[in-house]
Backbone:
């Protein structure tokens, strides 16, 4: 029990280990693992058996270079030979922050794996959070349960979002790495799909044992070139509510703060829009991050104009028009800002590919 609980955190150049002081204070040993652009270890051939079209429409457009690099970096983390004798190594990302003491978590992990030795992966968080919970309540409810993946397709729910703190026993790391190698989806969705198909046994904590601290420094390329943070208007035209739910969740989770999402919702009655759609996203609307408006959708020529019709445009430097099937990777808006600094620029985004 005196052995430190090690954490290996994926770190992009220019990023900080945001929770380093908390790790050390709570008894963890923490080390950064470099993010790598080389994705040669991946098999990016189209899978023959995986139901990706049903699970994630537009997946072909979502397997972007940064997604492949993230998958490859995680694969290399899992294969790191230094840790092959350590079953309780915590893998994560540089913005992860612990909420419980290392000794308490180690005892819980040992108990869980003794009770469920078939487990391939333990998620140490339940939902996305950017601020800490009450540590007393976290410790009091330190339990795991079977992960419940989406059976048909991911809806980008908070429950399945992210991979910022997880444990893979050493004997199962190659199996988990193979899933990331052969499934051209963002890593969290790839693992969710594998769990849904019975390929992986995943268990998740019933409360957040880690949270994501907002980053104080982003990619080094941005800071070194002093690229100003442009004000971005994301303009969506959505005809299917499931896509609206997915896209808003993805854009609200982007680390780029200086943006506003304007969405023109079509294909429904005004009554349904008022009663079903507006209340669902009221918290983001009140925060001033989202503007939703209803249009009948009879004139497709006016789709793009409808997103910003009547809006004061002078505060915005960049206008991004994503297609409805977009799979939006983390960092997309930062990438757009780096590619197209300046003002009054329109950026079409087709299925995730930025027109830079």
Residues:
């Amino acid at each position: 029990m005196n052995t430190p609980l090690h954490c290996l955190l994926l770190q992009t150049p220019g990023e900080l280990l945001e929770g380093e002081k908390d790790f050390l204070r709570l008894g963890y040993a923490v080390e950064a693992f470099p993010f790598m652009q080389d994705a040669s270890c991946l098999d990016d051939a189209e899978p023959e058996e995986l139901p990706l079209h049903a699970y994630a429409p537009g997946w072909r457009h979502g397997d972007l270079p940064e997604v492949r690099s993230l998958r490859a970096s995680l694969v290399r983390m899992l294969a790191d030979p230094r840790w092959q004798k350590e079953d309780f190594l915590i893998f994560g990302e540089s913005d992860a922050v612990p909420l419980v003491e290392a000794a308490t978590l180690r005892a819980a992990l040992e108990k869980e794996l003794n009770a469920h030795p078939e487990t391939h992966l333990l998620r140490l968080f339940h939902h996305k959070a950017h601020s800490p919970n009450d540590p007393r309540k976290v410790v009091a409810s330190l339990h795991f349960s079977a992960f419940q993946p989406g059976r048909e397709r991911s809806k980008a729910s908070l429950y399945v979002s992210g991979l910022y703190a997880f444990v893979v026993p050493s004997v199962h790391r190659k199996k988990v790495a193979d899933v990331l190698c052969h499934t051209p989806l963002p890593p969290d969705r790839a693992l969710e799909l594998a769990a849904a198909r019975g390929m992986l046994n995943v268990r998740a904590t019933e409360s957040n044992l880690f949270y994501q601290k907002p980053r104080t420094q982003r990619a080094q390329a941005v800071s070194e070139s002093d690229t100003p943070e442009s004000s971005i208007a994301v303009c969506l035209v959505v005809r299917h509510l499931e896509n609206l739910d997915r896209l808003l969740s993805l854009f609200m989770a982007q680390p780029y703060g200086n943006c506003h999402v304007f969405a023109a919702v079509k294909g429904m009655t005004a009554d349904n829009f008022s009663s079903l759609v507006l209340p669902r996203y009221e918290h983001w609307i009140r925060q001033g991050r989202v503007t939703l408006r209803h249009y009948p959708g009879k004139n497709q020529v006016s789709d793009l104009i409808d997103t910003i019709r009547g809006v004061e445009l002078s505060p915005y430097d960049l206008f991004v028009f994503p297609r409805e099937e977009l799979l939006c990777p983390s960092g997309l808006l930062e990438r757009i800002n780096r590619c197209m600094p300046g003002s009054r620029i329109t950026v079409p985004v087709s299925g995730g590919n930025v027109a830079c």
About this structure: The first helix runs from residue 20 to 25. Residues 151-158, 218-225, 350-356 have pLDDT under 50 and may be disordered. The radius of gyration is 21 Å. The first strand starts at residue 5 and ends at 11.
